[in-house]
Amino acid sequence: MPVQISIPIFVSDKTNIKLMKSTLLFLISLFLILQSSAQDYQREAKYIHPADSLVLINLPELKLPESYKGDKAPFLPIELDNSTLPYFRSIFSQDGWSCGQAASIGYNFTYEINRVRNLVADTTINLYPTHFAYNFYNEGNYSQGVCYHHTFDVLKSCGTPNVYDYGGMSNGHLHWMSDYEKYYYGMHNKIDEIYSISVADEEGLMTLKHWLNDHLDGSDYGGLANFYTDVVGVNLLPPGTPEEGKSVVTQFGNYNGHAMTIIGWNDSIRWDYNEDGQYTNDIDINDDGVVNVKDWEIGGFRLANSHGENWADSGFSYVMSKVLAEEKYDGGIWNKAVHVIDVKEDYEPFLTYKIELKHTSRTRLKVIAGVSSDTTDLWPEHTMEFPMFNYQGGDHYMQGVDTIESHKTIIFGLDVTPLLSFINYNEPAKFFFQVHEYDPNNKATGRLIYFALMDYINSGQEIPSPVSDIPLTENGYTTLSVVHNPSYEKVIIDTEELPAFISGQPYSHQLTVSGGDNPYKWDLLRSYSVNQYYENYPVIVGQELNPNSTLNGFATQAIPFSFPFYGQTYDSITIHVDGFLMFNEIKYPFPYQVYDDVLFKHEPMLAVFLNQNIQIFESNQGLWYEGNEEYAAFRWVVELVNDNGVVPLDFTVFLYPDGKIEYYFQDFGNPDDYRRITGISMGDGFNYELAGFTNNVPVESQQVVSFIPRNFLSDLSIDNDGFLSTEELFESKIYDITVKVTDNNEISDRRSFQLSSGIIYDYTIVSGDDNRIDPGEEPHISFTLKNMASLPITGLELNVQIFDPFITIIDDNEYIGTITPGQTINITDAVSFLVADDIPDNYNLDFDIYFNADSENWMGKLNFIAYAGWTLVKQQTSSSPLIIMVIQLQKRY
Question: What is the SS3 assignment for 806?
Fold first, then answer.
């Protein structure tokens, strides 16, 4: 029988007997392994980041392509070790709790970027630091672990400098780099996509092998993979077997606090799990009635750790294939999944911002970039945010060290190339830079010293703001802007309309695109109308629910109807103590504080008041449910623990069978005391809606936020070639479809279409003297109709409806008659309505429109926004002769 050497947590009685009989050589090996690893084991957290298990589950999953199955599959060798390639860096020791970044950036990203660029990882110019990204998320805490998905977001949006420019692999847990040129060089080093691979079965393991072998695309060299598990000691492969005496993991621990990297495999290594004296893959050794990967005793993968060269075999070890497929409680890895990345080989930023900013508490600041095609705008029409400089880094000076005066000031760069998506070719646009300070108690202060737009389309032209060195607005927004014409021909969707579908038949259509740079990525955009208004707070009694914990706990409740949400339907709801609803019972782990926006964007959820510091503490607090066939309501009576003490909260959500959602909030008092997320999310990272007052709770009011789904098609899909397809089409519906294409430079275009079996339509509105819908006005709607069918439509009549307390219909119909195939007709002032004097600001109006003909009927949607008035915010400098007047304007049509 082979000799087993394990750390104490895995030692059984049988193993103790074997250990006593082991040779002195093995005891010395064990001693050295444990000594070299002990200091690092102590550092590791027990669990993955609290929200990150949810986030990682929703990464796009790579499946084994058909061309990689059976006889068609590319040849795989018996063993592979990508650490022998020149792209793989040397083994190193992580600094602090940065295992996620050591595995994902130090090993994986470094390897991948060098692989596509054919560079050798033997110089600091070709190595990439762990702490550039890590220090934006560790809250200035040496002992704060950070999930690698957070820092992947940094590398995807902003890039990373190399070790040479950063000044080392870590450079301390507080350091934020200050040097525009270094940020600019780092923008060239980006992740393209992040994927997961399930390794729960044999096909998943084959998918991983082919990724390691050729990147699943026929490349000469494959990639690496990361995973989360628990740090453990290792065993030694038994005498007389392949790789005898080498280190091997035969079982991981119970937790998920450590990240490692898979670098290859070996199909010949073996371990006798059931101690029957043989090595098999075809015997049910765990007595579960099936033979699968969990029964394999032959074959494993090669991994690299970040505990230095004294760990295991100079920093490397094997892990048995069986372990990857096991449940976590049986010693497996987190979620039986590994994570892989694609990188951008030759990305070049076209537009950047150069910024010099001074502040005494970086955790109170967030930076925003924006643009307007209208150069008279005083507030950006489109904005983009960043996964860094986003209320991060802890309560420290900008560069990190609070005892050095110069560290109050930081000079940095932001890649704002995606803003080119929103400007017109060869026309000037207005570019904005904003700093939001969240400092309700005025504990910190700062200045915006310099802002310039850098245009690398035109050889790095620098366009500085005419205003400089101004004080930051206390607990508000500070905005600077420049006007510039970048003259860039962006990617454009050329398809103008979709052909009609035939009811009962599958539908597909190829969209076309021009301009920009390959490769393109296509996405479907699904939206809801979001409204905010005042209404009495409902009284929900119903039944009290019992969450599995009063901190971060949840309870699941069946509801009496199928609730539609972003194209899916759900018959049960999971309510979380922390102020949100989900649709499964994925646990919400709990040790680290987390940035909730990552969780929100990557998990399907209804965030009513998402904040991880909510708890049930008093006897009168709890969660309640009330429902019938008309609605399902969930209520929270809880408390929020923050820096200013404990705040009681009372809020409720109503769900309706048609997909409408309503959030109700009781009076919470001073809004500056609370931070939270209120919105809904599809969980794909880009289809989500935020309430306009997120992080600004209503004051002394009973507030309602409603979300109404637009008329999108639930099972429509689009691939990265722009091919639309669907199986489910109803003849009576006119579907609204919005697609987005993004090129390799992260510049995008989007276009909205209607899909119908007959009628499609466009519409305009005339209201007042500016076509903006204001209180007390009587808007008129005009239509352009087109018959997309192959037969005439006869006896056509148009009718609109809306059930809204702020709208009174005056004229709701128009008789049209006959429209021949392909014919387009215009109908002026077909519909009119009256707007109430007390309509809320920025209020969505959702009309149903019906087209009734002799032989067919269609139903679609109209959407407008009504406004209650202007929002004016003043910002005045102390030294500049200019007074910056910021008026928040939005497009009115």
Answer: coil
